[in-house]
Amino acid sequence: MGVKEDVSxxxxxxxxxxxxxxxxxxxxxxxALNKVCNKAFVELKHLV
Length: 48
Fold this sequence. Notes:
Layout: H1 3-17, H2 26-47
């Protein structure tokens, strides 16, 4: 369900938030993580 992808985005968000050099990537990483989470939620709904 993209769990590895979630972890990757979360790691990049942490790195981007902690460094002014990577702050420009923060919004893109959050958007990407949101897409992965929404996809996982849709897949979970189909299991119920």
